[in-house]
Amino acid sequence: MRILGIESSCDETAASVVENGTQILSSVVASQLGTHGKYGGVVPELASREHLRAIVPVVREALTQAATKLEDLSAVAVTEGPGLVGSLLVGMTYAKSLCFAVNLPLIGVNHLEGHIHAVVLEARQEGTGVAYPALALVASGGHTHLFEVQPGFHYRLLGKTRDDAAGEAYDKVAKLLGFGYPGGPVIDGLVPYGNPRAVRFTLAKMKGNVLDFSFSGLKTAVLRWVEARDLSREIEARRNLLRATPQPTTEQWLAVTAPATLDLLASFQRTVILELLGRAAAAAESIQARSLIISGGVACNAGLRAAAREAALPYPVYFPTPGLSTDNAAMIAAAAFPKLESGAFDDMSLTARANLVLA
Length: 359
Prior knowledge:
With 359 residues, this protein is an alpha/beta fold. The protein folds into two domains: 137 residues, ATPase, nucleotide binding domain (Nucleotidyltransferase, domain 5); 184 residues, Nucleotidyltransferase, domain 5. The protein is 45% helix and 17% strand. It contains 13 helices and ten strands. The chain has a five-stranded mixed β-sheet, sandwiched between helices. A hairpin with a 3-residue loop joins β2 and β3. It is globular. The relative contact order is 0.19.
C-alpha cells in the first residue's frame, strides 16, 4: 500500500511516497530559506505564495522518483495542522483535488504526530521498533511538547512551552547577534569553539506544571548580556558577511566572532539542552517510559544528540536521521498508515487548523 504524503505547514513544500508505512520510495522538499532568510524569520504571506509555486512540481517529482502513478496510490495524506493557515491551505487544497480527480481516500495528519512517526518509521526499518509507553519530545521552531505515547498511537500531553519554542529561541538569539536565519545550525556549529560554562544562566522554574518549558527568560538574559557590552561593530561585521555570502561557513563566522561571544553561544546551548533533557527525563520517569523519542528540527542539533548519548538513560533514545528531523512529507505518509489500515478517512470538509492539538 502506497501513500502520497503532502506537507506544507510552514516554509517547506514537501511530498513523499511511502510504501507499507516503512519504505520511503521518494522524499522531495522545496525549501524557502532563500525567501525568508533576509527577513530574519518566516513571512506567512510569502510562505503561502512559495507553496503555490512549488506544490505541483514537488508532488510530480515525488511520484516520478517513486515510479508511481496517482492510480497506484492507496491514499493521499496531508498535514491539517498545526501551522500557518495559508500554507496549510495550499497543501490541503491540492491534496483534495488529487483525491477528487482519482477517487482516493483523504487522510488528515497532525504535524506533531508526523514528527513522532519519523522516528517510528526508521525504528521499524531497522527491525527494532519503539517500546511503549514512550516519551516523545517534539522540539522545533514552532513547537516544544512532551507527549506520552501508548500502543496504538494514543497520546497524552505532559508538558509544552509557555512562550518561545526551543528552535524559536535559537533563531531570536541568532538574529540578535547578527547570525541571520535560521539560527540553530549556525549556533550549533560554533558551540565547540566556546566555553559552555563561561556564562551562567538560570534554569526556568515552573509554577504549576513542572514539565512545561519556558525559554523567554533565557532569551532575555542573552539580550541583557549583549546590552552590557558594546558589540555593535562585531554584529555589523556579521551582517556584512551575510550580505556578501548568503551561507557563510563556520570558519567565516569564526573570523567575525569574538571569543566571549562564542562562550555566550556555548552557554546558551548548554542551558537549552539542560532544559530539554531535564524535563524529558522527568516526564519519562513519571510514566515509566520504556523509550525516549526526540524529534523535530531541533533534533538535528549535534550538542543535543551528544548530551542524550552521554546521559546514560535507562532506556533507548531515538533520534530521526537529519533528513527526517526537519519538516518533510515522509513522516506525514508514515503517520497516515495506521489510519489507512483502520479506515479512518476524512471527507472534503477537512479544513486547515492552525492551532490543531495532538492531545
